[in-house]
Structure formats: structure tokens, C-alpha cells
Amino acid sequence: MHDLILDNEITQPTELRDFFEWHQGIKHYGFWAIEIHHPNCLQQILLSQQQLSNKLHPNYLRQPHITLSASGLLDDKHFTQASLQQQIKKLKESNLSAFSLNLSKGQSFTTAPYLSISDHCHSLATLRTLFNNICSEQDPSDYIPHITLGFYNQAFKTVDVLTQLATVYSQDIEFMVNEIVFAQYNTHEIQGRYQVLHRIALAD
Fold first, then answer.
1. What does the pLDDT look like over 15-72, one tens digit per residue?
2. What phi and psi values does residue 60 have, to the nearest 5 degrees?
3. Spatial separation of the C-alpha atoms in residues 140 and 161, rounded to whole Å
4. Nearest to residue 111, comparing CAs of 19, 10, 13?
5. Which CATH number fits domain 5-19+26-201: 3.20.20.70, 3.30.390.50, 3.90.1140.10, 3.40.50.300?
6. Residue ranges per structural domain of the chain
7. Has this prediction a pTM greater than 0.85?
8. Which residue, 174, 40, 178, 158, is CA-closest to 117?
9. pLDDT surpasses 60 at 1
């Protein structure tokens, strides 16, 4: 569940370690996502990360993306290949059209700052319903579309973080979404890159 920073006076630092108690030796975690490639969006993400660099752990390598559905640990007891193939089949059959989103202002969870995503046509809700009808997330109702900027390295005052984020915000950036991906990351690398396993093109 996302913990909004507005409900807390300080941030919560993230430990950079292997959380074995969570993954229990399962190597990969899977998720559906929208990759960010628009140059103006990438520039805004980089500027925001640089502005907060004194508050974030270095070497955050995960590529800019919007998580659509946090599928879960990839094994027979959690998120299975059968569930994934059903979702892929349903997504292809739906023939969904490409759509636009807006990269918006900075905000934060307790553990991580992010850039907000505005979805005026509710396209993300359509995709999430498709995925969750086959295999529901742990708490699908608690969804905030965003792009994570990194993880906090210490406990900081909420007001200081939000003030810094506000200094790099200019105006919303509209971008098109033409493709949905299913990706996985290594569970022992909390800041590591992800690997795309499937790419599903949207209709023109």
C-alpha cells in the first residue's frame, strides 16, 4: 500500500539490502508497465532526481516507467506463467488504442519521491481492470500512477522535500503511450534495472 508523505512529518529511509524475508529466494518480481521514452519527460525526470540528489541513495538504475499492475513474485505460488499468458491473450484481444498521458508535478510517498501522472481519459483504469480481472493485485484500489525518482537515504522533513520538488516543476508534459510491457527485476537488487519480457503494441 502506498503511504503518502502528507500523512507523515518525515520521510522513511530505505535500506539497501537483500530483503530475503520478502522474496524467500524467489529470483524475480514481475509487473506490467509503461516505459518512458519521451525526451522532455526524461529531461524532467533527470532534473527532479538531480534536485533531490542529496536526499536519495545513489545508483538508482531502474528505468523510468509507470507501473500498471504489480503482478508479484514470479513462481508457481504467486504470479504464474499461466496467469501471465491469460493477461497477454486478453490484452491482445482487446485491441486497445494508443492514448496520451501527462507528466505532472512532483509528490512523494514516505519512502520515495515521484512525478505524478495525469490520466484524463481513464485509460490506465481500463488496462488495470483488464489485468486485475485475471489476477488481482494485493490492493488494487490503492493505485497512484507515478514515476519513482529513487529512494530516500535518510529521514527528512516533509516540507523540505516538497519545497525542493516544487522548484523543478514547470508545466505538464503530454506524451503518447503506444506500447505496454511486462517486465521483471531481480528481487535482491532493490535499485537494479528491469528486463522487458513482453511488448504489446497498442492500435494506432
1. 999 898 989 899 999 999 999 999 999 999 999 999 999 999 999 999 999 999 999 9
2. -80, 110
3. 27
4. 13
5. 3.90.1140.10
6. 5-19+26-201
7. yes
8. 174
9. no
